[in-house]
Specification:
Blueprint: E1 2-3, H1 19-26, H2 36-46, E2 52-53, H3 59-66, H4 70-85, H5 108-126, H6 128-134, H7 141-151, H8 153-177
Antiparallel strand pairs: 1-2
Helix pairs in contact: 5-6
């Protein structure tokens, strides 16, 4: 981030003042500009006409500072409670070995709870009245897709684990069911 720190005589913040007022305060001729002598004098006195760069805080510090907001703490607590209770991955946990996609819509109450939870989360972020109440801002599609992409690996990894479990179980049953030849 770059911040201008110049103070113009009589103007605390020249960036908010009218350009004519700034030119007058600096003694600049609006038609002809500065003479070569005046430009050299100002360069020697004030340095180059450049903005000073301000060192930016590291990304990890900015991310950590977000945790100081009580609303973020509340949302993390609610998210953790959802993870503990399994609301976000409830369809996956219906059966230990069967796919989450098998009988997916069998439990209407569960899907009602999941839909209500998702609707409330989207409303807090997208509805203007709730934005001011919760201090949120509306998101476009990209951050929503990132959130879904970051949350979904739990479901996909559980599906892979179940697939391996089913294959292993089938293999174990076939080995047990296969008669062994007897030696003569």
């Amino acid at each position: 981030m770059i911040v201008a720190t110049a103070v113009v005589d009589g103007l605390a913040d020249p960036s908010t003042a009218d350009f004519v007022a700034v030119a007058l305060a600096l003694g600049t001729d609006m038609q002809g500009g500065l003479t070569a002598e005046e430009a050299a004098s100002r360069l020697a006195r004030d340095g180059p006409n450049a903005l000073r760069a301000v060192r930016q805080r590291p990304t990890w510090r900015r991310a950590l500072s977000q945790l100081q907001d009580p609303l973020v703490g509340l949302l993390l607590t609610a998210s953790g409670a959802g993870d503990i209770t399994g609301v976000g991955h409830a369809p996956d946990g219906q059966l230990e070995a069967a796919s989450a996609w098998h009988g997916l819509f069998a439990n209407h109450w569960l899907w009602g709870a999941v839909a209500l939870s998702a609707l409330l989360q989207v409303a807090v972020v997208q509805v203007t009245l709730l934005n001011s109440a919760f201090g949120t801002v509306p998101l476009d599609a990209t951050p929503w897709l990132v959130c879904i992409g970051m949350a979904s690996p739990v479901l996909w990894l559980a599906e892979v684990r179940k697939m391996v479990h089913r294959a292993w179980t089938r293999h174990a049953r076939s080995v047990v069911a296969t008669p062994r030849p007897t030696s003569a």
